[in-house]
Amino acid sequence: MRPRSKAALPNTARTRQVGLCAFSGTLRGLKLIPLNWRPLVPPTSTPKGHNANRWALGQRRSMEKATMDSLPDKLPTRRRKADRLVVSIVFVILLACLGLVSTKTTMGTWDGMFPSGEYHLKIQDKNGRPINGATLKVFEGGTKNVAFEYPIDNYLSEGDLVSNEQGVIVVLHKPQGFEFGGTCWSLYWVFPMCSNGPEFDFQISADGYKSINFSANDLFEPAYNDRNVGYTTIELESGESLRIPVFELMFTLER
The pTM is what? Predict the structure, then answer.
C-alpha cells in the first residue's frame, strides 16, 4: 500500500519551505522530516551573498556619511580666529627676534662734526637790495630754547648776529674735531639704520619782513658740497692762527 503524501503547504513571498528528505536504511520508503518555516527579508533589501544585518549597518553608515558630506563646514569661527591669532603672534615674535639678532650683530658707532668755516649770510629783499639790521637766532631742534655758542661760535647772546649795511651776517664755526656721534646697524641685515646727530633751527627776521626758518643742513650745505668762495684766517683760543674756508648763502625776505 502506497503511503499518502501530505499536501504541499502554500508558499508566499515572505515564507520559504525548508526540509530534508532521506531514505531509510531498508529502502522501504521515504521518511519525511517536519518542515521549518522561516520569515524572509524582501529579496530587494539584501544583495545575494550578504548578511542582512551587516548590509543594513553598512547602508546606514553610507547614508550618514553622505549626509555629513552634504553639510557645510561646521568648524567654529572662534577656533579659526584663535588659529589666526596664534599664527600672528608667532610671526611677530619671530620678526622681533630676527630684528634683535640683526641689530646686535651689526651694531657699530659713527662720529661726526659740522664743517668748520666762515659763513656769510646775505640778506636781501625781493628786489635784491640788502637788508640792514636783520637778526639771526639759533634754537635747539624742535624747541624755542636758544642755542648759544654751539654750533655757532660767535653767537654768544641775542643780538650778536645782525646784518651790516651790505646785508651780511657773519657766522663762524671753528674746527673742533669730532663733535658728536651715534650708532648704526643693519635691520634684518638689509636696511641700514643710524641714530641722528644734533639738530638746530635757524631763524632770520627783520622789521617789516616775514621771518624765514631753515635747518643746520641748509646752513652747512655749501660746505658739504665744497662750494667755498675763498679763505680767511681766524685765531683760536690757544692763540694759534688757522685758515678756514668762506662760504656764502643768499636769503630773500618778503614783506
Answer: 0.62
d(CA 56, CA 121): 102
Do 12 and 39 touch, CB atoms closer than 8 A?
no
Rounded to an integer, what is the distance from CA 77 to the centroid of its chain? 25
Cα–Cα distance, 176 to 159 (Å, whole number): 25
Distance, CA of 52 to CA of 238 (rounded, Å): 116
- Residue ranges per structural domain of the chain: 15-60, 112-178+192-253
- In this structure, which CATH number among 1.10.10.10, 3.20.20.70, 1.25.40.180, 2.60.40.1120 belongs to the domain 112-178+192-253? 2.60.40.1120
The lowest-confidence range among 19-23, 170-174, 202-206 is: 19-23
Q: Which of 166, 164, 161 is nearest to 151 (CA)?
A: 161
On whether the CB atoms of residues 164 and 136 are closer than 8 A, the answer is no
Q: For the chain, give the number of residues.
A: 255
